[in-house]
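step: validate -> pass
step: tokenize input -> pass
step: predict -> running
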Amino acid sequence: MFQHHTRHTLMRLLITDLDNTLYDWVTYFATSFQAMVESLAKSLGVDEERLLDEFKAVHQHYGNSEQPFAVFELPSVRSRYGNLSDHDLLYVLEEPLAAFNSQRNTQLCLYPTVYETLKALHENGVRIVAHTEAIAVNAYYRLSKLGIADLFHHIYAVKGNLGPHPDPKRRDALRAPEGQLSYVPNEERKPNPELLNDICHREGIRHEDAWYVGDSLIKDVVMANRAGVTAVWARYGTKYDPELWKILVRVTHWTDGDIRREEELRNLHENMRPDFTIDAFREILALSGFTS
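step: predict -> pass
step: emit ->
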């Protein structure tokens, strides 16, 4: 851990990124996705590379690499099962979907000290909100499954292009409490500081009393710096198996333009630094003046 700037203000609002800040999204999603594709290729008798190409096309269509039930839209699936409804596909594809869920149940877990730290901040009167570029229903599901959804005053996320869950029994479980979800426009992406300006305004907290924690230097830290809130880099979130990242890149929704934009951001903001760098989530407590 190191402190870069001397700024050190009382935290009244913690805005936290989710993926690879509170839990290891790369590992959980890549391993779950890989298990699903292997099972699907076996059941359809189709080459995995072909399925990966089809997934990428669906993801790019929606502008999202975590489109719920994208598997239902794959040409190979539709070629085999014709015009079956999503509800019926849920059952004929039970094995591949179960493979995904099994891996998710194993791999999706909070980083050490996340729960204890959020709970301590909550009990000390800090307002906690989430900000993510994930689809809202996915973000809420993960926070709920991890047992921390109730600690968040609001969850700022992308609405997404979604139909209802194909299993009616699951729809209520995926519904956040009234008013907890706040939608971010699809075109408003990190590191746009207006996102944080808007969050601070909605929460009624001054910028100087707000902290933002995230794993990306060129998106999370740059955005926080530009918005004038305390920027905390979750360095631990960058430590994952690079082979798993390659799986995600293989089916990414990113276009060539998105990749160029990422490189431009990296070059433009290479000298940006966080106010604080942490190697465990609990370090936020001491940095913000609360008892560790």
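step: describe -> Confidence is low (pLDDT under 50) at residues 1-6.
step: cleanup -> pass
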